[in-house]
Specification:
heterodimer, A: 314 residues, mainly alpha, ABC transporter involved in vitamin B12 uptake, BtuC, two-stranded antiparallel ribbon, 14 helices, 75% helix, globular, B: 306 residues, 15 helices, 76% helix, 0% strand
């Protein structure tokens, strides 16, 4: 198999799996509710896709690079933004600015730990996430502040038939794709992920690339948290919890290599849709929560096994 | 080298313990110490489980879900029908060994496979206990509540766990070979070892300690639910690293891992003595982790220059 064939194909599998889950659900309803299902998948998939895109960039940096602070960042950004907005109309944009600033701060703190203290990224983001989590608990104090109505309407609204959050997710995906495939920075990122030492010797500013990547993942997580809180009517302390595993799962199912140096933007969206569709498929077949989880896990592993045997040994 | 590796975890635990006693002298008693470290026993066991995985250069994102499942089995089957319960536990350990073998044979990334398995364990736990409940077997509760003379149960348990795993992993020949899987698997293959079997064995060790962690947890809480130990995943990784372990090269310390778990537990309760808001309990664990690792960096740099 040619190199181009190997690197361009993996995303097909995530989309095929998503289509399969979609079709399997519709078989049961005899084709009714197809539009609603697709709409829901795009809405909920958008959050997974946004955090997945960030996680993908980090994982692309190579072995050992993964951001475990995504859930805490989402919660902290959403909590602080909503607290600032306090349901007042017309505060949506300053609120967004606060969420993004939280993202930048978190990303900078994470990278400082990694760079200055030479901590392995897993342990640095883990330790820092515990602190972010405490910050969120402390500033939230169990309050549930509603987002401003205009913002809530935007987050749950649609444009040209697609959910607004999906438009945001698609725009980000396009941006990341262009950055990775067409920009110098993207080439640097891929080069660093494939061989850090070689990239450094070739004159790639490796540490700057790493810093930008850890900032990007945190900003993406903060944006996802802001949108999710607006979408679901407020920030909750456990709102990010499921996105830790989700963010890694969509990257891997999407066909990006967990060993780094090879990322796949369309695959992340395909996998994000799949993760939602597989749950709704199991739901519509009447599977209980336990069975649903077991099957979800089995399917994830099956896809990883299929992907690894197809990709051959390089 | 190993001797210095253990020094920092010991010192950090001693400092933290000293500060706690200084601020709350009443904690310096049989019951005080027991209270401080009671919940550390299952965390220490889970940390040792994680250590078995990190020892072979992998990472386990499912240990929290697995301990939760073991806790649910303990609170249901092991209580109602001990034989079935024991068989189920054996099956869980075998499943872990199988997971290790599959990861090695198909060259899968452990981080993803364990992530998928965490859904499976969580699902099985929900299946067993859809709502929180169950009951701890009488004998298990008795073990966890036993009051040995002079030193409280939690300390005895920690010493026991550290001692046994030290013998298994550092002293025993097989333990050395297992650490070699993380150090240089190719050399082991050349020396005639079957690395797949060794990896399965390391994972079985993790499964065994994961099961023990679940049992110990139920012995303390007397009931279980499907999410009871989810936070153990991150705590156990932190504990291993805090105890001087490294992610690659089979460089782990069982005694350090137990101490790391104790330190993290103490960090959480330390704040209540400082009369700080409990909001910061989780954050304190993060801060301690960063502090100790910073100290390690400073020592390592000094080691380089001298």
């Amino acid at each position: 198999m040619s190199l181009a064939g190997m690197t361009s194909k993996p995303w097909i599998w995530a989309w095929a799996a998503a289509a399969l889950a979609f079709a399997a659900t519709l078989v049961l309803t005899q084709g009714r509710g197809a539009g609603e299902l697709a709409y829901a998948a795009l809405s909920f998939g958008a959050f997974a896709a946004i955090v997945g895109l960030g996680q993908m960039l980090v994982i692309t940096l190579g072995p050992g690079n993964v951001d475990l602070s995504i859930p805490a960042t989402m919660t902290l950004a959403a909590t602080l933004a909503l607290k600032f907005m306090g349901s007042d109309p017309g505060t949506a944009l300053p609120g967004l600015a606060i969420a993004l600033a939280v993202g930048l701060g978190v990303g900078a703190a994470n990278f400082a730990l990694i760079f200055l203290l030479r901590l392995p990224p897993i342990i640095a983001t883990l330790a820092a996430s515990l602190i972010y989590q405490s910050l969120a608990i402390w500033s939230n104090r169990g309050l549930r502040i509603k987002p401003p109505t205009g913002l809530a309407e935007f987050a749950t609204g649609r444009f040209l038939g697609l959910p607004n959050v999906a438009w945001v997710g698609l725009a980000l995906a396009l941006m990341v794709w262009v950055l990775l495939e067409r920009s110098l920075w993207g080439r640097w990122l891929l080069a660093s992920g494939q061989n850090l030492r070689a990239a450094r010797l070739a004159g790639v500013p490796v540490e700057a690339v790493r810093a930008a990547t850890y900032l990007a993942v945190a900003v993406f997580a903060a944006l996802a948290g802001y949108l999710l809180a607006s979408f679901s009517g407020g920030a909750a302390l456990n709102m990010g919890a499921e996105y830790l595993l989700m963010s890694i799962a969509v990257v891997v199912i999407g066909g990006s290599s967990i060993a780094g140096g090879n990322s796949n933007v369309p695959g992340v969206w395909g996998a994000a849709l799949f993760m939602f569709l597989v749950v709704s498929m199991l739901n519509s077949y009447g599977a209980a929560a336990g069975v649903r989880n077991v099957l979800t896990g089995t399917i994830i592993i099956a896809i990883v096994i299929a992907a690894s045997s197809r990709r051959a040994r390089i | 080298m190993n001797r210095y590796r253990i020094l920092l975890p010991v010192v950090s635990l001693a400092v933290l313990l000293g500060l706690t006693f200084w601020m709350q002298p009443r904690a310096m008693s049989y019951f005080g110490v027991n209270l401080l470290f009671n919940l550390a026993v299952p965390i220490a066991l889970a940390t040792v489980a994680q250590m078995f995985i990190i020892m072979v250069n992998d990472i386990d994102l499912s240990i929290g879900a697995f301990v939760s499942l073991a806790a649910c089995v303990t609170a249901t089957w092991l209580n109602d029908a001990p034989l079935i319960g024991l068989l189920a536990m054996a099956a869980l350990i075998l499943a872990y060994a199988g997971m290790g073998a599959v990861i090695h044979a198909l060259e899968l990334p452990a981080i993803v496979v364990t992530l998928g398995m965490s859904f499976v364990w969580g699902g099985l736990a929900l299946f067993l206990l859809p709502t929180p409940g169950g009951a701890a077997p009488e004998w298990l509760r008795a073990i966890m509540k036993v009051k040995p003379p002079l030193v409280p149960m939690a300390v005895v348990a920690a010493l026991l766990i550290a001692g046994v795993t030290h013998l298994l992993v550092i002293r025993a020949g097989l333990g050395t070979v297992l650490r070699g899987v993380g150090g240089n698997p190719r050399a082991l293959t050349r020396a005639g070892w079957n690395v797949m079997q060794l990896k399965a064995l390391a994972y079985a060790g993790a499964g065994l300690f994961g099961v023990l962690a679940g049992m110990a947890l139920v012995g303390l809480t007397t009931a279980a639910d499907a999410n009871i130990a989810l936070r153990y995943t991150l705590l156990s990784i932190a504990g291993v690293i805090l105890g001087g372990g490294e992610f690659t090269g089979g460089k782990v310390s069982p005694v350090g891992a137990v101490i790391g778990a104790l330190t993290l537990t103490l960090a959480a309760s330390f704040l209540s003595f400082m009369r700080l808001s409990p909001d910061w309990q989780i954050g304190a664990q993060g801060a301690i982790l960063i502090l100790v690792l910073t100290a390690r960096l400073i020592f390592a740099r000094r080691g380089e220059t001298t």
